[in-house]
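Both lines are quoted verbatim for reference:

——
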Amino acid sequence: LFIPCMATVVTVYKETNSWKWTIFNIVFLLVISTIGGIVTYQIANIFLT
């Protein structure tokens, strides 16, 4: 799973000046990385079995 580093979080906050967008960015990246991991696992599982 992927959670952005503190430097990225601070930069997003400074650029947007909003905790709402900062939290949204963290959650969005976490969801996208989780979905990507699940899809990759399922595709690999199909080809390897």
Q: What stands out?
A: The chain has two helices and no strands. The radius of gyration is 15 Å. The CA atoms of residues 38 and 44 lie 10 Å apart. The chain has a mean pLDDT of 93.
